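Example 3.2
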Amino acid sequence: MSETKHFRLISLTFIAVFWTTTASAGQPIYHVQQVDPNFDVGAMAGPGVQIHRIPKSALPSIETRDRVIHEAGLQKDASGWDELDKDLLYLRAQKADTPDALAKQYPDLEPKNLGAFMKLVKRAR
């Protein structure tokens, strides 16, 4: 096998994982598991092929999350928090219907800043 073919084979393992199973009728079922969420495995769809996609994360990158916390004026309040607490704030802001609902979970935080945070989180979706 040439170096180019080896490289292509190795590259595919970082994009998708492949395996085969057999259906009750004896026909093979080819499975394609998405590994890289930025690579669309839909092009590999076809008869007898099952595509298994990675769900998009509910959380942004750490940099984006921290930028939104900063822009909302919550950086001082969140400065002593660990990563999990910051992620939970972000997830709760995504799920909350109103700033008041979020403020009930975070009574020590300024409601005005929580409202701004919610708007930024919902816009980042």
